[in-house]
Amino acid sequence: MINDPHPPLHTFHQSGDLIIGGITSQSFIVSSPIDFSEKVPATLLNELMTLTKNYQHILALAFAVREINENPQLLPNITLGLQIYDSYFNAKSTYHATMLLMSSLKRFVPNYVCDPQNNLITVIGGLDPLTSLHIATLLDIYKIPQIIYSHAPVMNDKTPGLPFYQMFPNEEHQDQGIISLLLYFNWKWIVGIVMDNDNGERYVQTLFPLFYQKGICFEFIERVPQIDFLSDLLDKMKETGKLQDKVIDSKANVVVTYGESYSLAFFRFAAFVSGLGLAKNVTKGKVWIGTIQMETSTFAFQRTWDLGQIHGALSFTIHSSDPPGFHQFVERRNPTSTRRDGFIQDLWERLFGCIFPNHFLNDLEKNICTGEEQLESLPKDMFELSMTGRSYNIYNAIYAVAHALHDISSSLFRHRVIINGGVLRLQKQRLMQLHHFLSGFSFNNSAGDTVSFDQNGEMVTEFDLMNWVTSSNNSFDNVKVGRMDPQASSDQDIRINEDDITWHRWFNQVRPLSLCVDPCHPGSRKTVREGQPFCCYDCTPCPEGKFSDKKDMDDCYKCTDEEYPNKKQDFCLPKGISFLSYEEPLGFILASVSLLFCVITALVLGIFLKHHETPIVKANNRNLTYTLLLSLLLCFLCVLPFIGQPQKVTCLLRQTAFGIVFSVAVSCVLAKTITVVVAFMATRPGSSMRKWMGKGLANSIVISCSTIQAGICAVWFLVSPPYPDVDTHSVVDKIVLECKEGSVIFFYLILAYLGFLAMVSFTVAFFARKLPDSFNEAKFITFSMLVFCSVWISFVPTYLSTKGKYMVAVEIFSISASGAGLLVCIFCPKCYIILLKPELNNRAQLIKRKTM
Fold it and tell me: 190-215 in b/e burial notation, b at 16+ Cβ within 10 A?
């Protein structure tokens, strides 16, 4: 058991059968070896590249081991120990440290372990992805599982072997979270910044296409240069300063950054260079979005640098909690009371900018460390008392191993127990079972959180959305403003408390916009500009009959058949019902005109009946005249079924009644014309036309011509009769109640037949107009047929060019106008003579005209 509350952290601690190997990196935070060609002393290198915040990773490891060893319920017969080595982000050093872990303690003898009291069970991988990959190369040979507490995308491509376990969730979940965050705030025009390394390039190639799929564009993507050699420091800082200028001058207000845990420290070079005047001063704020990999940590020499650039930034972090007692455990650590900690004295000097006496004689002018300095007085980017996300991963990793060992030991007790001196010794082959217990493993830690691995060996967890808030005195704080659940549906995966977010001061606490162009308002649609990203577009109004009810619509849509777009074309209105009714002025006027002509026709018929014995009434077949007047009366009454809401009966009667009645009227006119011609020809001596004289010819013409039209209507009824219907397309804002012809062919066949009769009547009347007869009607029939044909010839194009109730109105007008033409042209001259010139209405006048 570990009795010392502060176990040694500089080498290893042997306290029982098992050793937990912990390979951590906290000194040199660069991703590739640095070769200074002995130009820079080690003390200056440490001063430059120390991230003091990572010391907490070691404390989390020690705290978890101490808790487990003091818990008699978890591993009652097993004591955990730990070893800590520094990889120096160097493959050679990493391989060497890994071999030391698998060798006898304090001795480097590969493949030889002579101490039965120390068995390597698990290795906690490094902070850098390449460190974990180098470790896995050796561990796969020895079948020792590795638990990785940071992201390691390169591990997905490693040679298949013993599964590794990642206390870091699948990076795809974080990627989806960033996309959801951008879409939540409608940020679609952004800048991308990555570290100039393999991970950064992989991120550009794999993730950024997903942004485009979600409608998010990049104004540009920049790569932050890495400082591999101190001699390149000034040049790289200038290059970073130019990058800063480009970002500040960009139109995008959102910057998505991807990097490692130390990337923020490198990004701060840009603001520092700007402050020195090597670049433009930072006057414009941006919303920086960081990934889980990035931590709010800085190098020790950056403690006085301005943090205003990242004020208001947002980043996802792994959900973490403070285990009970960890805060006090960290708070009590200091160089004077903590034993066997080879890191704390060096760390203390960097944290508080002081030195301990007799450290370096040439540095005595610096402040002297008393050991009583308070860790809680430090800014959070230098050191935190609360457990950070990666420290929480280490803490949970140790507990995952402990719970797995507990299950393995319980299984061994049930099957085969080997006792040696009262201490349980696990057989080496049984240790290979560890990864079977870790796969799909789940447990509750002391902080009350559930920790579990999926079948791929990745931790299943939620993400916290953090808001980075800085103050004028350069202090820093992380404020939780939301949460992202990868297991939730896509529309419920992210929850944000926007009121808790503090934006950069540039935005005056108003939600920032980040778009290439102003959004298209409802009623318009996007039109992509040629040669530019699809996020840069023009706004064009919706075509007629379509609408868009949201901003930035890619296309406009049609309303339902029962709706139509409003004038602004941003929403749909319900259509009104439209049909030609008696209540509206147009229907009332047309009905009134039709009834007026009915009355006039009835009066004319009454006049003719009253004067039925006069020569002018007897001329040209008196009964035929009465038939014509009755048919004209019915023609004007045919208008009435066209007005009002269409019904099945009225639809059947409309066209058929009109066609038959008009064919009777035109047939009467034709019979009258032929009667005039036959009468003239019969007066010639020896003419054979005398046998055709009489009423039989006229009646035959009327009956036969009308019967043909009636036959057409009868076939129409049998084949495809008219029916009431609803038209939702002809008129934009109306639902038109109408009568469908059923078969349009028959409708136009009726009109064509009427036109044929009218043309024949017009032709015959035209040639008979100058025949000598006092009461010759041919000239009047010519004019009436001219009016009739003109009306119906103009009817066809007019009818086809109108819609809705106006089509009905055009047909009503044509019926009334053509009927009125026949009535006026044929009967007005006769009524004039009957009523105003009765002296001309006598037989003597007729004989006189014949003599002349």
Answer: bbbbbbebebbebbbeebbeebeeee
Backbone angles phi, psi at 192, to 5 degrees: -110, 135
Sign of CA dihedral 434, 437, 440, 446: negative
pLDDT, tens digit, 9 for 90 and up, residues 804-821: 888 899 999 999 998 998
Question: Could you give the CA distance from residue 161 to residue 178 in angstroms, rounded to a whole number?
Answer: 32
Residue type, 479: V
The pair of three-digit structure tokens given for residue 832, joined into one six-digit string: 């004039």
Spatial distance between the Cα atoms of 601 and 598, rounded to a whole number of angstroms: 5
CA-based nearest residue to 814, from 599, 627, 652, 662: 662
Domains of the chain: 12-170+322-334+383-452 (3.40.50.2300), 171-320+462-507 (3.40.50.2300), 524-574 (no CATH), 585-851 (1.20.1070.10)
Q: Using CA atoms, how far apart are residues 645 and 146, in angstroms rounded to an integer?
A: 83
User: What Cα–Cα distance (Å) separates residue 382 from each residue in 51, 357, 741, 832?
Assistant: 8, 23, 86, 117
Residue type, 326: F
CB 825: neighbour CB atoms within 10 A? 21
Q: How far apart are CA 232 and CA 36, in angstroms?
A: 11
405, containing H or E segment: helix 389-415
**Beta strands in 497-626, from DSSP E residues, in sequence order:** 524-528, 537-541, 546-547, 557-558, 563-565, 572-574, 576-578
H helices of 720-770, in order, are: 744-768
- Give the distance, in angstroms, between the CA of residue 155 and the centroid of all CA atoms in the same chain: 34
CA distance 268 to 313: 13
On the 0-12 / 13-18 / 19+ scale of CB atoms within 10 A, 529 is middle
CA atoms of 614 and 774, how far apart (whole Å): 13
| Burial class of residue 446, CB neighbours in 10 A (0-12, 13-18, 19+) | middle
Give me the long-range contacts of 351-356 (CB less than 8 A, separation at least 24): 351/52, 351/300, 351/375, 351/378, 351/382, 351/383, 352/378, 353/303
667-719 confidence digits (pLDDT tens): 888 888 787 777 666 555 555 555 555 567 778 888 888 899 899 999 998 88
Helix (H, G, I), strand (E, B) or coil at 559: coil
Is the whole-model pTM more than 0.70?
Answer: no
**H-type alpha helices, 83-143:** 91-101, 129-142
In three-state secondary structure terms, 122 is strand
User: Whole-angstrom distance between the N-terminal and C-terminal Cα of the chain?
Assistant: 152
Give 299-302's long-range contacts (Cβ < 8 A, gap of 24+): 299/29, 299/48, 299/49, 299/50, 299/51, 299/265, 300/47, 300/50, 300/52, 300/350, 300/351, 300/382, 301/47, 301/48, 302/265, 302/268, 302/272
Residue with tokens 């043909």: 708
Contact between 195 and 263 (Cβ < 8 Å)? yes
pLDDT in tens, 314-338: 988 887 888 888 988 888 888 887 7
Neighbours of 654 (CB within 10 A): 21
720: CB partners within 8 A, 6+ apart: 742, 743, 746
340 CB contacts (<8 Å, ≥6 apart)?
A: 4, 6, 7, 8, 9, 10, 13
Distance CA 812, CA 638 (A): 9
| Number of other residues whose CB lies within 10 A of the CB of residue 385 | 16
Instruction: Give the CA dihedral 83, 87, 93, 97, nearest 10 degrees.
Output: 20
Range with the largest mean pLDDT of 15-19, 30-34, 295-299, 616-620: 616-620
- The answer, yes or no, to whether residue 226 has pLDDT greater than 90, is no
Checking if the pLDDT of 592 tops 90, the result is yes
